[in-house]
Specification:
alpha+beta, five-stranded mixed β-sheet, 16% helix, 4 helices, 208 residues, four-stranded mixed β-sheet
C-alpha cells in the first residue's frame, strides 16, 4: 500500500526534495507560539492554521503525548507530516557551533527511535525505515513572549510521511512514535530507566 499512496523517497514532489519539505514544515511549525501551535492542538480546531501552500497540507505531531484531531482538508492537497522528528538548532543547542555538529547531534537524537508506525484508513504503511530524512540547513523564527522573535538555523531528522492527495470523503491517519529523550540523557546521569518521548495522534479527516 505504501508505494501506491506515498511519494517515493527519491522523488521531488512539486519540485522540491523531501529535505526541502522538512525545512518548510519546520518553518510552518515554528511560526506560532505554543498556545496557538498546531503541535499543541488537541482537537484539530486550528489544523488550518497558516496552511498557505497551494499543493501540500501539513499535519503535526504533539509536544509529547496523545491527541485526537478532526480536520477538513481541501481536495487535491498532498499531506506531509512527521511520525517522529527533532529540531536541533544553534538557538536551542548553543553548545553546537557548526552545521556538521548540528547534523551529527540530530542523527544521534533520532537514532534513539524505537517506534515509528503509521496507518491510513486502518491499513499499516510499510517499510517506513526508508523514509528517514535529514533536512537541509534551514532558517526559522520562534515567537517569544514580549520579545522580538528569535531567529536561528537548524537541522531536523525524522521519519516522515508524504501522502498523495486522498480521494474525496472521510479518512483516518493514525501514527505513533517513540524514542529516548536524547537531550536529557546527554546532560544527566540516569541510574535507572532512561526517559522516553512518545507521540500518538489520530486524525479524522474529511477531504472536500
Amino acid at each position: 500500500m505504501t508505494a501506491n499512496v506515498m511519494y517515493a523517497r527519491e522523488s521531488k514532489p512539486f519540485g522540491r526534495s523531501w529535505e526541502q519539505w522538512v525545512a518548510i514544515w519546520w518553518q510552518w511549525c515554528s511560526a506560532e507560539p505554543d498556545d496557538t501551535n498546531p503541535v499543541a492542538d488537541m482537537t484539530g480546531e486550528i489544523c488550518d492554521k497558516n496552511q498557505t501552500d497551494s499543493d501540500v497540507w501539513f499535519l503535526a505531531g504533539t509536544f509529547g503525548g496523545e491527541a485526537e484531531r478532526t480536520c477538513i482538508i481541501p481536495a487535491g492537497k498532498a499531506i506531509f507530516f512527521p511520525i517522529l522528528n527533532d529540531r536541533i538548532s544553534f538557538a536551542e543547542h548553543n553548545f553546537l557551533t557548526t552545521e556538521t555538529e548540528l547534523r551529527a547531534y540530530a542523527k544521534s537524537d533520532l537514532d534513539q527511535a524505537t517506534i515509528y508506525t503509521s496507518w491510513l484508513d486502518g491499513v499499516e504503511l510499510q517499510n517506513l525505515d526508508k523514509y528517514r530524512v535529514q533536512s537541509q540547513l534551514f532558517d526559522f523564527s520562534m515567537p517569544q513572549d514580549d520579545k522580538a522573535p528569535c531567529s536561528s538555523q537548524g537541522i531536523s531528522e525524522g521519519y516522515w510521511i508524504f501522502l498523495r492527495p486522498l480521494p474525496v470523503g472521510r479518512h483516518t491517519i493514525h501514527f505513533v512514535g517513540e524514542k529516548l529523550k536524547f537531550d536529557e540523557i546527554q546532560h544527566s546521569d540516569f541510574k535507572g530507566a532512561k526517559p522516553k518521548f512518545r507521540v500518538e495522534v489520530l486524525y479524522h479527516l474529511t477531504i472536500k
